[in-house]
Amino acid sequence: GHEVTLVTSIADDDGGRFVRTELANAGVSVVDLPGGGQTAVKTRIRATGQTLLTLDGSSQAAVQVGSPLPREALDAIRSAEAIHVADYGRGVAAMASIREAIGEMAGRAPVIWDPHSLGPAPLPMVTLVTPSSAEARHLACDPAPPGLAGDVRAARALTAKWGVGYVVVTRGEC
What we know:
The chain is of the alpha/beta class. The protein contains 5 helices and 8 strands; from the N terminus they run E-H-E-E-E-H-E-H-E-E-H-H-E. It has helices at 14-25, 71-78, 96-105, 133-139, 148-162; strands spanning 5-8, 29-32, 41-47, 50-57, 83-85, 111-113, 128-129, 166-167. A 4-stranded parallel sheet has the order 5-6-7-8. Strands 1-2 form a two-stranded parallel ribbon. Helix 2 (71-78) runs parallel beside helix 3 and helix 4 (133-139) crosses helix 5 (148-162).
């Protein structure tokens, strides 16, 4: 029931055309950023509901970090009722103009940041950061063994390190 706008760079390749079609079918507006690279494709090999193997295609950055931000992208960010940042280290969250616009919104709208080891740190004052268990330990530089106690320790360390509202460590199977 909400309008969704995706600010990203989608390549003009088979994967990108598929993504654009699916987004349009779902009613998602797309604001395209200047970029390059190719569409990242994640293929999960599963059996009986369990992920056995994940194949990631394309690790190239999707945008040029110094590229100017189209006015339409800035307007979409500044008018958002909520923002979810998840670029898997492909350059969008590292763009100075994107970071500045999101920083302006922190405190005015909920900002949820899904960090990635290849991407930039979340901005201070974002509402919620959602690393996986392994990402949390890596980003906190914490050698704690996997498990609830280690996740809690990493979440506390990252909350202080980044100056964010909350860190919720995801512990799902896939």
